[in-house]
Structures are given as structure tokens and as C-alpha cells.
Automatic annotation (TrEMBL):
Protein name: GCN5-like N-acetyltransferase
The species this protein was found in: Fimbriimonas ginsengisoli Gsoil 348
GO molecular function: acyltransferase activity, transferring groups other than amino-acyl groups
Transmembrane segments: none
Residue ranges constituting the N-acetyltransferase domain according to the UniProt record: 24-171
PROSITE patterns given in the database record: GNAT
InterPro entries with a match to the protein in the record: Acyl_CoA_acyltransferase, Bact_Acetyltransf, GNAT_dom
Family matches, as PANTHER family: AMINOALKYLPHOSPHONATE N-ACETYLTRANSFERASE-RELATED-RELATED
Keyword annotations: Acyltransferase, Transferase
Length: 176
């Protein structure tokens, strides 16, 4: 099953940067963050990431412009990367590998790192942004919607899958 796709059409007007609580700091990743990035991505996605994976797929990948992290006194706790794939998404940046430590969920960290990526895309002269996600990542999808992303139906089953996702989002809102 293919991943769901979302798109934000305009990058010239972006939301204001939300304040990060307490001891959180948003910055660009450096090579010394590789271990922390591997830990965050393993926790967020369930697949084992190593430092070598981080270097190959993010920090030294030719299609990744920048990787952003949010750090606390515990180290790296959230990340997202700015990627370009001009053959597939001309004039668009890709919001890539968004993840956070589960212990830090619900604090707006995903929103903050994604907004940093959108600003990076805008500053690079890109006019839109895309991302891929999975049907069950409801909290992430809610964040992407707040950032102005909308579903993009790229496969024949995406319409039905998006309808199911929006149904689940409505149920979780009602339960609050």
C-alpha cells in the first residue's frame, strides 16, 4: 500500500513561529546529533536507525538540504528534514522524516520542526511543499493540516483512505 500524500500550495505566507516551552531549542542538526537522531527516528517509527543510517539518509544525503532538530537537556527530541526531489516534485520541497520522542508528544515540537522545513523551502525559492505519511499517523496528520497541507490523491485508493482518516480524526476530536 502506498503512502498518503499531502501538499501545501503556497510558501510565501507561513504561520508565525510558535514559542517552544521551557528548555527546548530548535536548530539545524550537526554531525554530533547523529546518535540522538537515530534514537528519535527509531522511537518514532519503530524501525532501527543507526548513526550510519542518519548520515546516509539525512546528514550526508545529496537530496536533503537541511535537517532540523529540537533539543532539550535530554538531547535530540524531535526532527524533520528539508528534501528536494525535482524529478517527482518540481518547484516543491519535501518535508522528510518528521519524528519526535514519544515522551515529548503533544508539545508542538512536530509543528515547530515542520515549520522550520517550510521556511527552508521558501528561502530556497520553492513555491510549494509535499510530504508522505501513513494512514495511522493521526497526530502527525492533524499537525500537517494545521500547517496548511491538504490531501493529494495520487493513487486510486487514496480517496477512500483519506475519508477513513478524516473519520478517525473527527472521532478523536469528539472524544476530547
Amino acid at each position: 500500500m502506498s503512502q498518503l500524500v499531502m501538499r501545501r500550495d503556497r510558501l510565501d505566507v507561513l504561520p508565525g513561529e510558535p514559542p517552544l516551552a521551557g528548555n527546548y531549542l530548535l536548530r539545524e542538526a550537526v554531525e554530533a546529533d547523529a546518535s540522538g537522531l537515530a534514537s528519535v527516528l527509531t522511537a518514532a517509527f519503530g524501525d532501527e536507525w543507526t548513526e550510519a543510517d542518519v548520515f546516509e539518509r539525512l546528514l550526508r544525503a545529496p537530496d536533503v538540504r537541511r535537517t532540523f532538530v529540537i533539543v532539550s537537556d535530554q538531547g535530540v527530541v524531535a526532527t524533520a528534514s528539508s528534501q528536494t526531489i525535482p524529478d517527482r516534485w518540481p518547484d516543491s520541497g519535501v518535508v522528510h522524516w518528521v519524528g519526535a520522542e514519544p515522551a515529548h508528544a503533544g508539545r508542538g515540537l512536530g509543528y515547530a520542526v515542520c515549520l522550520a522545513v517550510l521556511r527552508d523551502h521558501r528561502d530556497a525559492g520553492l513555491t510549494s511543499a509535499v510530504l508522505t505519511t501513513d494512514d495511522e499517523r493521526l497526530a502527525a496528520i492533524r499537525t500537517y493540516l494545521k500547517l496548511g497541507f491538504r490531501p493529494l490523491e495520487c493513487d486510486s485508493d487514496h480517496g477512500a483512505r483519506w475519508a477513513a482518516v478524516f473519520g478517525k480524526l473527527a472521532q478523536t476530536e469528539t472524544a476530547k
